[in-house]
Design goal:
Blueprint (H helix, E strand, L loop, with lengths): L7 H13 L2 H8 L3 H15 L4 E4 L2 E4 L1 H26 L4 E8 H18 L3 E8 L1 H9 L5 E5 L7 E9 L1 E5 L12 E6 L4 H13 L3 E7 L2 H9 L5 E3 L8 E3 L8 E8 L6 H15 L2
Parallel strand pairs: 3-4, 3-5, 8-9
Antiparallel strand pairs: 1-2, 5-12, 6-12, 7-10, 7-11
Length: 286
């Protein structure tokens, strides 16, 4: 018996709609009508044999089967795109500029850069690791082709929200802090503007916990060093969390923080699109 085959165009529509959290936006991104996208989703569910999306209020959410399909679909598309790019990538030359929020630098760059240079060995890469406040103006000024940042509430014309991570209080393994009126909680934070700095202060104020700024740093490495030295606590995510630090559950529970992929133009070169796709794939495993 011949097994049914997945249509990669249909899978791409499905994955794009989920990543954009809107199939109307997916239709616009992929150059299709909304009715064509609806027909593709119906075709996908016919192949799967069960619903992959369910209504929730005014929107759609993945069913358990849809969540499983999403993971497999991303891998299929990644393999398809990598094979296609590899067959053509050896002909491409030029320079591509990537910006990465510092939290993701060590965790993400090794995998993405290794994969990309195998496909595009003659493309020169310029990588800028920094804070969102530094990277977003570079995207807007076309000084970067692609940038991965935290969702700071500042949008760019061609941005895609890829996912989210819980904000987490982080402290030293060896020192515990109890905030009192006479001894406010010491904080180790980025210099403003910083979305995590603002979230930390707002949460502590709302909980009635006294605080003070013990140290500010322009880099994540500086934050980790200060927290490890016992100077105070910080608010980050678990992305890139050093093993010698601990998550502090005794402080106020925090919300999720989204991460966003920004492009300098609506449709970049094949190399730019390949790099953006590889970045999204790497983050799916975070």
């Amino acid at each position: 018996m011949r097994l049914p085959a997945f249509d990669l165009d249909v899978l791409r529509t499905f994955v794009t709609g989920v990543e954009l959290d809107s199939f109307a936006k997916a239709a616009d991104r992929l150059g299709r009508s909304t009715s064509a996208v609806s027909a593709q989703l119906k075709k996908l569910e016919d192949v799967v044999g069960a619903p992959v999306l369910a209504r929730s209020g005014r929107g759609l959410v993945l069913t358990p089967l849809g969540e499983l399909l999403l993971s497999h679909a991303r891998r299929l598309l990644s393999l398809n795109d990598e094979v296609f790019a590899h067959l053509h990538g050896h002909k491409a030359h030029g320079t591509l500029r990537l910006g990465v929020q510092e939290d993701f630098g060590e965790h993400l760059l090794r995998d993405v850069l290794q994969r990309f240079t195998r496909v595009y060995p003659h493309i020169n890469l310029e990588v800028r690791v920094g804070r969102s406040a530094e990277l977003l103006p570079m995207i807007e000024g076309a000084r970067l082709d692609v940038a991965l940042t935290w969702d700071t509430g500042v949008s760019t014309p061609w941005a895609t929200r890829l996912g989210q991570a819980p904000m987490t209080w982080i402290g030293s393994q060896d020192r515990h802090f109890i905030a009192t009126r006479d001894e406010p909680l010491p904080l180790v934070l980025f210099e403003p503007p910083c979305v995590l700095r603002s979230a930390a202060i707002q949460a502590l104020d709302a909980a009635g916990i006294a605080w003070r700024i013990a140290l500010t740093s322009p880099s994540v490495a500086g934050l980790w060093a200060a927290v490890g030295a016992g100077l105070g606590v910080t608010l980050r995510t678990r992305v890139g969390l050093p093993a010698h630090l601990r998550v502090m559950d005794e402080l106020p529970a925090m919300a999720q923080l989204g991460y966003v992929l920004h492009r300098a133009s609506e449709q970049g070169s094949p190399a730019v699109e390949c790099l953006a796709h590889m970045t999204a794939q790497a983050l799916a495993a975070v």
